[in-house]
Write a structure and sequence with these properties.
275 residues; mainly alpha; two-stranded antiparallel ribbon; 11 helices; 3% strand; elongated
Length: 275
């Protein structure tokens, strides 16, 4: 059944531009991801969601007792409401990064799953979109779960905060695309430590816990280049109802990340398996 189906798809693609890159079988890859998810260890899956919740409880209600309010845009808001949107953005990033780095590395270098996929009628863009799509679902799930925690606590100051969920999806897409692109070039398991080395300082300096205006000007410039800083500013602006044109700039930043990530992921997979 499956062999004739693969042959039929390959025949339909024959002679068409891009036939080696994309076959339109992304839904099948998402289905495979769901089947694999059902057999995974749930503690590992939910760990990316628990971490931001712990930060919210410890910083939001710990430091929040010492610093009840913080000035944002000329207004004073609760400290917990200041960091909650940032942690929502971080939650989306965590979900996307885990699936697009560690999982991709083992599928690529140990399980050799992509070797089998690309031996069929699937192309590298199918694999890229399938893996990134599953990471996107995970990031979306983390964001929804975290929103379900902070909204009842009164930490979403505006109805525009509902747009934080689609914003989190965009953020997850950007991180997943670039995460998979970087991972596709890794040769050893030890190189995955680079991800942690990059993510930790980016999280600490992103403005999640305090305004980046507290930094020296030279450091502010560097921090403003970080993707998580744009993610934090985008989600925080929506949750606080501070609608500015700058929010579109933050969103466009992730559109660029998506395009770059998909381009290099597809190019790398094509070079590895489609020679």
């Amino acid at each position: 059944m499956f062999i004739p189906m693969a042959v039929a798809i390959a025949d339909a693609r024959a002679g068409k531009r891009g036939e080696r890159v994309y076959s339109g079988r992304v839904p099948q890859l998402l289905e495979r991801g769901f089947i694999a998810f059902k057999s995974s260890t749930y503690m590992i899956v939910i760990s990316g969601f628990i971490e931001p919740v712990l930060y919210l409880l410890s910083f939001g209600y710990g430091i929040g007792k010492l610093l009840p309010t913080i000035a944002v845009g000329g207004e004073s808001i609760k400290y917990a409401a200041f960091i909650a949107p940032a942690l929502l953005a971080t939650s989306a990033m965590n979900g996307a990064i885990y699936d697009s780095t560690m999982n991709v590395y083992f599928k690529l270098n140990h399980d050799r799953i992509y070797h089998g996929m690309l031996a069929t009628s699937m192309g590298p863009l199918d694999v890229a979109l399938g893996e990134i799509g599953w990471a996107l679902i995970r990031g979306f799930s983390y964001a929804c779960a975290f929103m379900a925690v902070i909204a009842p606590l009164g930490l979403v100051e505006s109805v525009w905060g509902l747009l934080a969920i689609p914003a989190a999806v965009l953020i997850a897409f950007g991180f997943a695309a670039c995460g998979m692109a970087v991972t596709s070039y890794m040769k050893s398991f030890q190189q995955l430590e680079i991800v942690t080395v990059v993510l930790l300082p980016m999280f600490l300096f992103s403005g999640a816990f305090y305004p980046i205006s507290v930094f020296p000007e030279w450091l502010q410039f560097t921090v403003n280049l970080l993707p998580l800083t744009h993610a934090v500013n985008l989600v925080r602006g929506l949750c606080l109802g501070n609608l500015e044109w700058a929010l579109l700039g933050h969103a466009f930043y992730f559109v660029v990340m998506i395009v770059i990530g998909l381009f290099f992921t597809t190019k790398r997979l094509n070079a590895l398996f489609m020679k």
